[in-house]
Design brief:
The complex is a heterodimer of chains A (425) and B (607).
Chain A lengths: L1 H14 L8 E2 L2 E12 L5 E9 L11 E4 L3 E8 L13 E7 L1 E2 L4 E2 L6 E7 L4 E6 L4 H7 L2 E7 L17 E10 L1 H8 L15 E4 L26 E2 L5 E7 L5 E5 L4 E6 L2 E2 L12 E3 L1 E4 L4 E6 L86 E7 L16 E6 L10
Parallel strand pairs in A: 1-4, 2-5, 4-11, 12-15, 14-23
Antiparallel strand pairs in A: 2-3, 5-9, 6-9, 7-8, 10-11, 12-13, 15-21, 16-20, 16-22, 17-18, 17-19, 17-21, 22-23
Chain B lengths: L1 H21 L2 E14 L5 E10 L16 E3 L5 E8 L21 E2 L5 E3 L9 E6 L5 E6 L4 H4 L5 E6 L15 E10 L1 H9 L15 E4 L11 E2 L7 E7 L5 E4 L5 E6 L2 E9 L1 E4 L4 E6 L5 E7 L15 E6 L4 E9 L4 E5 L7 E2 L4 E5 L3 E8 L3 E8 L7 E4 L4 E9 L4 E4 L5 E3 L3 E7 L6 E7 L7 E7 L3 E5 L7 E11 L5 E6 L4 E4 L1 E5 L6 E3 L3 E8 L8 E7 L7 E7 L4 E5 L7 E11 L5 E6 L4 E4 L1
Chain lengths: 425, 607
């Protein structure tokens, strides 16, 4: 009975799929290009240009459009900025633009009160980027960039039309950088004094926020122009889809501690040898270098295998665990424990609390889901006893905010005990 | 016996000739020269470039940066390059990916450090470089001496070979037309230092900071000629070569392309991408199939798109798929003033200037912009364009356009000049033209059509000013800007105001505001309004409606503070009114109105 109950409990919780991508759905959108400020964790505020949804707050990045394969989509862009603005949609089909003025890459909305309308078909599922086609060297830097997610027909838990792209959780990683000198000059209207040849970013961001704001919730009122966060979470064995977008002008080696990723698609195309063969050209890496203007989809799984000790603090005499083992060495029943380590004790005697210094992410116990006694004031960021893995740009100078560590292009990925309900945005 | 000997000698010679042709050798005569490169903005920068001559010592080739594209015929396996060096320093050649045969290398300097990867050509000499079994593909040929200096100085070109006619590698890489796209950079400071002090190893590139980003040797400029890529529906090969020292990202905007090879090696599987990294020194081959006639952009998504303190330049160009019909656009300039006309949109082609004619695909949309010189003003268009703003033409026939420039004798306020709607608290770039003897300006605004003026700023030296629109007491549609210019002796030399008034809004009703709205009595509705910067805090807001076009007003609600919206029911009417309006009044703590707006359009209420 107990065995069935535990199995049932784990099954319910681990079969639920949470949507971790914030965005807007539909087929008709209105963007207003407007200016505003974002906040960095070192208490700086930076003048930005962004695409606001309808006439709401300027936001950085722009609204993530969540579309369905085959949709015909209209985006009306209204402009309140002192410069012309536009949008290009790499990877979308049949993009047409009407209204506004002809520009170097697409039609643009006039300054202050111009308008231009774009229509396209989201023919293929995947992860895409949109950004301004007007002076992109300035306007992308200023914040006129966003993401598009196209869902394959009939599935919300696949990235493409093949089971190889199935995921349990999905998160957006829109990577960018900021050189405040450029923003200061733009705030003063001195566009012709902006020098890109000595571009020197000092802020690095994921989804428009620098760490530790990446780990706050989405839509917090104290970040009104930075609605998206980046706080990926999963249970062991769950597939986490990373939708990585190179939004700025620099490459970033995005590194996932804890496990490697399987890169299944680039620029909205599955890595397949022939159409329909699935991601048979997928490759494994623990560092994905983003391409400016490009996207990639990678799947991450943490299993807890081969730790050498039982992460659940089992003694080995618990009934119903590891009675049947699959070909890879995992229990066939949830939570799919790694059986070779089942019942193995923690390999060291933990020092007394008086001999330890603590971080905020320590729960007081080394076991998954475990908590323990902590001195007053210690810990606190890990109430469920999860494992925290730093996911970050491995260009180490990018994990600071204007030279202050920790910060920048960094977040924590949390593996929670299978019974924990994930606190997703 | 004598006859037999002759025959034998003959056959031996014949055999030798046959053997020589089996290992066919292709000879190239390259020459390295010092040149002055003139960039489209007029900057002259000293560079070192290659020319290809028809023979040793025959100087009939043109020196260029990048150097000429060299094609090795498919049947040739051995390649010999005779390099004549007219630089003040030794140089050499390497082709990464191809194995050099003869000679030696590397060459070390007196401290033992490598200065050349290959054997050197001293100044004033001609030396042979040789490759056997030359592989097909796209390669970068560049100097192998003091590489960090000699390559940015300009010693690079593309060398390529096919497997078969119009086929780069395997059979899937057949194509109908090709384009070569070379990325590179110029750091004008480095070039000047090297030109003045050319010895190998004397100048360091540690502070290398490109000021110009180039595609095929030039930054984008409005007169650019697109690369002709042939007809629709077939594979086009684009050979991308990065001869610069910084990575680039090749992008074609919204178009996918297929990446088939890297560094001369065909991939076993091709991927479709819209953004690929082309690292410094790397080559990539992509196939692209255009489905429509028109112009396809190629640009650097690593955003090397603006040269040092210039307007748009950098790595942007276009491929042209020629339509069956094409037409010519001709620009003329007239008047006693001076200026130029450029194409400010895709696909460029006219910088008039001196490049005043271009032939385009049928129905190409082109935006022309007239830019007067500092001492001139643009009076207007005639011919294929009208008015005095930018002109957009859809080219359906051969067209001529004339731009009229007149001397500037006074100040001209360009923005705001009438009709604009500014929001209090927002930033607006006031801009004007002035004769060149104007050294400073004072700027004023009026809220009463010019009856009285308030100072915004003085001693402005630029010809624009970012105005933070102040919180005024009420919406107005009678605002104007005035600019007065002074020369260096503080004498007023010009004055101008906005031609027509513009509006400044404190508050704006956003719903109901559009035209054609129809409501039914008693149904729910929501009145919304945007508030910008008010001159004082809003203590209460009155929401009113009128059914007689604003002759009389009825109050719907008095709200505390300024919630921005009010939800209620559409007022009841006994007969249909077509003159419905809504009005919002913002009041301060003393109940004095500090902002008011009315719906822009009438709406209808049915009983």
């Amino acid at each position: 009975m107990k065995k069935l109950f535990y199995t049932f409990l784990f099954f319910i919780i681990s079969s639920t799929s949470y949507a971790g991508i914030q965005g807007v759905t539909g087929t008709s959108f209105t963007f207003t290009a407007k200016d505003g400020y974002i906040v960095t964790p070192d208490a700086n505020s930076i003048y930005m240009w962004g695409y606001a949804l309808n006439n709401g707050n300027m936001q950085y990045p722009g609204p993530t459009l969540i579309l369905n394969q085959g949709d015909t989509v209209t985006v009306t862009l209204k402009n309140t900025l002192p410069v012309p603005v536009s949008i290009i949609f790499p990877g979308m089909s049949n993009v047409t633009a009407t209204g506004g003025d002809a520009g170097l890459l697409t039609r643009e909305a006039k300054p202050y009160n111009g308008s231009v309308t774009y229509t396209f078909t989201a023919s293929n599922p995947g992860t895409y980027i949109y950004y301004s086609g007007t002076n992109p060297e300035l306007q992308v830097e200023m914040g006129l960039v966003g993401a598009i997610v196209v869902r394959p027909t009939g599935f919300t838990n696949r990235a493409y039309n093949h089971p190889d792209s199935q995921f349990d959780h999905e998160y957006l990683f829109l990577l960018s950088e900021i050189d405040p000198k450029i923003h200061e000059k733009a705030a003063l209207g001195k566009y012709d004094e902006i020098n890109f040849t000595d571009y020197w970013p000092v802020y690095w961001l994921i989804n428009g926020r620098a760490a530790p704001d990446t780990m706050a919730e989405a839509n917090v009122p104290w970040l009104p122009t930075q609605p998206y966060n980046c706080m990926p979470m999963a249970h062991p064995h769950e597939k986490v889809l990373l939708r990585i977008i190179g939004a700025g002008r620099d490459m970033h080696p995005f590194h996932t501690h804890g496990s490697h990723t399987k890169v299944i698609a680039v620029d909205g195309k599955l890595l397949e040898s022939t159409p329909g063969s699935g991601a048979d050209l997928a490759y494994f890496t623990f560092t994905n270098t983003s391409v400016p203007g490009g996207t990639l989809d990678a799947i991450y799984v943490w299993t807890g295998a081969k730790m050498g000790w039982d992460i659940y603090n089992h003694t080995g005499s618990e009934p119903g665990i590891c009675e049947t083992v699959d070909a890879n060495g995992f229990d066939v029943n949830p939570p799919y424990e790694y059986c070779a380590d089942h019942g193995k004790p923690f390999p060291v005697i933990l020092p007394d609390n008086k001999d330890l210094t603590f971080g905020q992410f320590y729960s007081g116990s080394p076991f998954l889901g475990g908590t323990g006694i902590l001195p007053p004031g210690e810990g606190g960021f890990n109430p469920n006893g999860g494992y925290f893995f730093m996911w970050h740009s491995h260009n180490e100078k990018e994990i600071v905010n204007n030279d202050i560590f920790p910060g920048g292009m960094l977040t924590m990925f949390v593996i929670e005990h299978p019974s924990v309900v994930l606190m997703n945005p | 016996m004598f006859k037999k000997l002759t025959f034998s000698i003959f056959s031996i010679c014949f055999l030798l000739i046959l053997i020589n042709n089996a290992f066919a050798t292709y000879e190239i005569y390259l020459r390295a020269e010092v040149i002055n490169k003139v960039l489209p903005d007029g900057t002259v920068v000293p560079m070192w470039g290659y020319a290809r001559d028809s023979g040793v010592g025959i100087h009939d080739g043109n020196v260029s940066v990048p150097g000429p594209v060299i094609t090795i015929p498919e049947n040739e396996t051995n390649v010999r390059i005779y390099l004549e060096n007219n630089l003040p320093v030794p140089t050499s050649i390497i082709i990464p990916g191809q194995y050099q045969q003869s000679g030696g290398g590397p060459v070390r300097n007196s401290s033992g450090r490598i200065q050349s990867l290959s054997h050197e050509t001293p100044p004033g000499s001609t030396v042979l470089y040789e490759w056997g079994d030359f592989k097909p593909g796209t390669y970068l040929l560049h100097s192998g001496t003091d590489i960090a200096i000699q390559v940015p100085m300009g010693l690079y070109c593309v060398i390529k070979k096919e497997t078969a006619p119009n086929q780069v590698y395997g059979s899937n890489t057949a194509y109908s037309n090709e384009a070569v796209v070379v990325f590179s950079e110029i750091d004008t400071e480095l070039n000047t230092q090297v030109h003045n002090n050319p010895g190998v190893g004397t100048i360091s590139s540690i502070n290398y900071e490109p000021k110009y980003y180039l595609v095929n040797g030039n930054p984008f400029y409005p007169g650019i000629t697109p690369i002709d890529i042939g007809d629709i529906g077939s594979n086009k090969l684009i050979r991308i070569v990065n001869a610069g020292l910084k990575d680039r990202v090749f992008s074609m905007g919204e178009n996918y392309f297929k990446v088939i090879a890297e560094d001369g090696n065909e991939y076993p599987f091709y991927q479709s991408n819209f953004a690929i990294i082309v690292a410094a020194g790397q080559t990539k081959d992509v196939l692209f199939t255009p489905n429509n006639y028109g112009y396809y952009p190629i640009f650097d998504r690593k955003l090397g798109l603006k040269n040092y303190l210039q307007t748009t330049g950098g790595i942007l160009t276009y491929l042209r798929v020629k339509s069956p019909n094409e037409f010519t656009l001709n620009v003329n300039k007239t008047g006693t003033g001076a200026g130029k006309v450029i194409v400010a949109s895709s696909p460029g082609g006219i910088d008039c200037g001196n490049d005043c004619t271009e032939t385009y695909n049928e129905n190409t949309v082109i935006r022309l912009k007239a830019i007067p010189d500092t001492n001139s003003k643009f009076v207007g268009w005639s011919g294929g364009c009208t008015g005095n703003g930018d002109c957009e033409i859809t080219l359906a026939s051969n067209t001529s356009v004339t731009a009229n420039f007149a001397p500037l004798t006074n100040i001209i306020v360009n923005y705001p000049n009438g009709g604009e709607i500014l929001k209090t608290g927002s930033n607006y770039l006031i801009s004007w033209q002035a004769p060149s003897n104007a050294s400073k300006f004072s700027i004023f605004y009026s809220l009463n059509n010019g009856t009285s003026w308030s100072l915004i700023a003085k001693n402005i030296t630029r010809r624009d000013f970012l105005w933070n629109v102040p919180a005024i007491k009420n919406n107005t549609n009678k605002a104007k800007i005035r600019v007065i210019g002074y020369n260096a002796s503080n004498t007023q030399i010009g004055i101008d105001s906005s031609d027509l008034p513009f509006s400044i809004e404190v508050v704006k009703v956003t719903s109901p505001d559009a035209s054609g709205l129809v409501f039914s009595s008693g149904t729910p509705w929501q009145i919304t309004w945007d508030t910008y910067l008010t001159s004082q805090p809003v203590a209460n807001t009155i929401v009113q409606y009128s059914i007689n076009g604003g002759f009389t007003w009825n109050t719907l609600a008095i709200l505390t503070g300024n919630p921005g919206s009010y939800s209620g029911s559409v007022p009841r009417v006994t007969t249909t009114t077509t003159k419905g309006l809504v009005r919002v009044l913002l009041r301060n703590a003393k109940n004095i109105v500090i902002g008011v707006d009315v719906s822009d359009n009438f709406f209808t209420i049915n009983p």
